[in-house]
Design brief:
The complex is a heterodimer of chains A (321) and B (935). With 321 residues, chain A is of the alpha+beta class. Helix content of chain A is 29%, strand content 20%. Chain A has 11 helices and 12 strands. In chain A, the strands form 3 sheets. Chain A has a 5-stranded antiparallel sheet with strand order 4-5-8-6-7, with no helix packed on it. Chain A has a 4-stranded antiparallel sheet with strand order 9-10-11-12, sandwiched between helices. A 3-stranded parallel sheet of chain A has the order 1-3-2, with helices on one face. In chain A, helix 5 packs antiparallel against helix 9 and helix 10 packs antiparallel against helix 11. The relative contact order of chain A is 0.12. With 935 residues, chain B is of the alpha+beta class. Helices cover 29% and strands 23% of the residues of chain B. Chain B has 24 helices and 36 strands. In chain B, the strands form 9 sheets. Chain B has a 7-stranded mixed sheet with strand order 8-10-6-17-14-15-16. A 6-stranded mixed sheet of chain B has the order 12-20-19-18-13-36, with helices on both faces. Chain B has a 5-stranded mixed sheet with strand order 2-1-5-3-4, with helices on both faces. In chain B, helix 2 packs antiparallel against helix 5. The chains are: A alpha+beta (321), B alpha+beta (935). At the A-B interface, helix 1, helix 3, helix 6, helix 8 and helix 11 of A face strand 4, strand 6, helix 8, helix 13 and helix 24 of B.
Amino acid sequence: MMNWPDMKDSAQLLYYCPGTVEEALQLAQQYPGNFSYLAGGTDVWVNRRQGNNTANCLIDISHIAELQTVIPTGSTLKIGALIKLDQLKNLPQIREHFPVLIQAAHSVGSPLIRKMGTLGGNILCENRCIYYNQSESWREAVNYCLKSGGEMCIATGGRKACFSEFVSDTAAALISLDAAVEIGDPGGSATLKLEDIYSGDGLRPRRLSKTALIKFILLPLGRKYQVVFKKLRPRNSMDFTSLTAAVSVNNSGRLKIALAGVSPGPVVIESDVHAHPETLVREALKLSKIVDNDVYSRLYRREMIRVFLEESFEALRGTNP
Amino acid sequence: MKHLQLTVNERRYDALVEPHETLATVLREKLGLTGTKIGCEQGACGACTVQVNGAPLLSCITPALRCQGANILTIEGLASNGALHPLQEKFVEKGAIQCGFCTPGMVMTALAFLQEHPTPTVEQIKEAISGNLCRCTGYKKIIEAIAAAAPLLRGEAEIQPPSAGTTASRDGFRIVGKATPYIDARKKVTGEARYADDYQFKEALHCKFLRSVYPHARIISIDASEAKKIPGVRYVLTGEELPEKFGVLPISRDQTALAIGKVKYIGEIVAAVAADSEEIAAAAVKRIKVQYQPLRPFLTIAESLQPIGEGEEAIHPHCREGKNIHKRASLRFGDQRQGLQQAPHRCRMHFEFEGVSHAFTEPHACTAFCEANGNITLITATQVPHYVHRSLAKVLQMPVDKIRVIKPFLGGGFGGKGDPFAHEIIAAFLAKKLGKPVKVRFSREEVFLTNHGRHPTQMDIELGADPEGKFTVLDADIKIDGGAYGSFGVVTTYYNGVLLQAPYQIDNFGFETCRVYTNKPPSGAMRGHGAVNPRFAMEVLIDELAHQMGMDPCEMRFKNFLPSHTLTVGQLRITSNGVREALQTVMERSQWRERYGKLPFGRGLGVACGFYISGSALPIIWNQYPQTAVQIKVDLDGRVVVYSGASDIGQGSDTMMAQIAAEVLGLDLHNIHVHSADTLMTPVDLGSYSSRVTFMVGNATKMAAENLKQEILNRVADGIGAAVELLEMKNRRIKSSDGKVDLSWNEAVEMATAGRGALVASGYYISPKLGGNFKGAGAGLSPSYSFGAVVAEVQVDPASGRVTVKNLWGAHDCGRALNPLAVEGQLEGSWHMGMGQALSEALKYHQGLIINPGFLDYKIPTSLDIPDFHTHIIESCDPEGPFGAKECGEGALHPAVPAIANAVFDAVGVRITSLPISPEMILKEIRLKEKIEAV
């Protein structure tokens, strides 16, 4: 039960600290399939120590200045992916237009994690499961789950699918705000709706190429979102989510639900303020794939989806008569 | 290797660094700045926090190379020209430091916070430190220290003189009773204090372990040939080389240092590798091939109570009754069956408790080295050097006089460092075998796998009362899950029963306890040992009975309290007893009468009481040696040195000894030096567990100091020709009441040492003979007992079932508070730990494997989860305690847990009888209740 990388791995580990996106992408092309980008590192470093990240090349992008800026461009606010979670509260445009993003960022980890972790990193946080986020020999003792290269999912007692949870609190908030992401890749840039980068497959939770990196998060201005954000966790600090719900209503009466912590990808429901609440709750429950791989039971988390959504609808009714 | 340039604490450093090395490792191992601690290696405890370019950062998950050219501030860089930073000063002064292991990270986090928020609110402070775990203080004094430092950092002058709490002496004492920062607090707050992993030795080898991945399996073969081929691997050790069994209790020595023949839990050590570096040792461990033949594992109490089937194998050959039973204990006074039949009111309930962990912040670590003469020294994070000493002698088959065990600064124990451990024995063996220092440090996961935490427990308990609410009969049937080995388990087995005998008078009382072995990490002693779970059951049962009888639960308790100076039904001798005053106090402070049962739905108050031993009156190793011996020496320079085997594990025992010696000798605290917990230099003490140290070592220190005082006075009287009866020692002077003698301390010492040299005096403590003449009469005997009460106020969200503890009023009778600051710290820490067991902490298993072996998944309450603690010290002045003192380190925990459960009942009307209380259980019970009420 060790927290130390293998001798061989550590001897071979390469570390680069590029100063620009272009340099980073170039390095990525040099080490395809065998590297990890490192932003805040709060997630990647722990996964390395537990042997879940076995990359032998780290491309530390944390010094790329370009990705640490916020640029309002007409109808869109462009947020650098390397903005730290803790910095969001200091940005006037976010305070004014997207306070829920500050709330969501504030719910991540601990104050120290938020001073290290980046917005882009949180969006790309690896899926989690109590049978996966463990040391090498722990996973050996349960005979390795599917995500650890084994034959079957331990949490479900043998299913051939991975139910590791998508746990990004900020992604839930951002999706509810109709965020898009600007992706940099050696092949060129692309802009995608944030929810579209997630595959829903616990084994490969993102539809991005290995070399892709998120450069900017794009938020549409002027839609006057009202958002209710809730997170279920045992403690008021430190814990990953067991259920995150962001429910938004915009100025054209569109309602959007984004859930994290209940499925290998975000659960997204788009509707309008006139939709029947019970229908929305049922839809959310139907789309969730909760299994017993968390500190709370499957049944309880399902129950809390209903509670969180009903409370959110109630709160939104209060703000949006 | 890359060349890393850093500025650390305004000094330039160059180091060659591998990409996989973290900033924490480089600071600690390459620059020798060991003030930065490593507690979890996953960014979930904050002990490694440093500032990089002005921002706080978790150095244990930061690649060192990221910090190229950075300007770094560590705890060592805070003090300036020998003067503490004001924030450090406040941590010392406010008692914010107990074991000190979280302190450097906490201070660095707080410093960055105050720089950003010069005028913080309490809520902001709680938020700011919510990524830094502290297991000792309950955060209250840390929050106070940060709040008090804020104005100083803003450059404002101190309003009050820098002395905390009670400054005036009471009852004629100068030192005793005065709120006193720990004498070692400065060392802890500057990073100077060295913990077990902070020792660095030339040519040290590093030891790593291959641990079992099966809960129960025969070892068919171990092939280490590939491991041995790795350059730098010095030795691969397997079980056969250390066949001698050990265990903390002489009556259950059932463990070998490494598994021999079979493994009994996941995490048990199967092989050990000593190598030139930690990485090499780890790599070698991975290359050891073990072939196992799995055996049927026994994972629950129920499974272990079934007869062992055909083709199955008991966990140990000495298991009883053809089942995996380790120990049964029972005592009966009166006929409980008849008593319950006749009781007009009775209440029976079933309780279940999951195992919980000490979760001290410092992982186990040790270094052993062999001296030229063949003697072995082991520096280890232990609560009991004496038991480690004995175990090393037994397993290594070496004479005791060739072994030295030293406890360095220790980052919390709570019972979890009270056993002798396999890794300590292995390190010592390898050091002797290889002639080089051998170092072991555990990952946080290894700490959890080693466990020795509180026993998972099942309990059926029934209480009967007469129409007035006086208890007439109590019967308990208790089953505890011991895991794979004995540890303190035989004691736990008795304590679960016998510690139900107080604080209430119940003349018809009986219990039966059964401890089973299971294929899980061993259970052992944890804060409040053996009594926390039955206390929970008893106090919830009382609450329910009072509810059924329509009586106020406080009133019911008042009707049943034992008086002072009495015997319980099982002949435990109660001396001082402040339980009534304790309950009265928390009732008044919580406005119990005005508010209990009258708060809106979702809000509730709950009450509970408790008591605990001040050390066991009987030692676990039977001999005629006193329970502790203390020596005290003064030499020509006037310095007084106290030598004691007692382990300061953050509870402040070194300070306690210094206070007592200073009080008796009329000196100041800084005149006293304490040298403790070193088996070469200090007399035997039985260790820091069972809340024995203040009472026993305190008494021995007092006796030693009084003997020294008498010796000095005699010699001064002789030298001057004065009557010794007229002499007194006070305020660093020796004076006679007739005014003829007036010497300074140093003049008196010079006179006293003339012609004979340094003076050494001794003291000891032997418990009076106590207890009855029946089998089992010795269990639970203590020369004195502490008492306490708690009222908790909770808010329960009926939609989610979530419980928030809003307030906790606690009062604890500690006899006399020798050091009120330390006593408050012990109480607040106990309540915090009790709250963890009540609401969030549990060791969860998947087929014998701990699912949550880390600080992210094992849920210690953070600073944002705690209630306002309202702390009240009750002083009953025990007739036999040193200056009247008795225990305060464990007993306060007991009432905290049931008070919270009882508050939940008051809030939402549901009775939760298993721990931890989950929101899910509450919702389920609320639904059930609604259904029943609807019908």
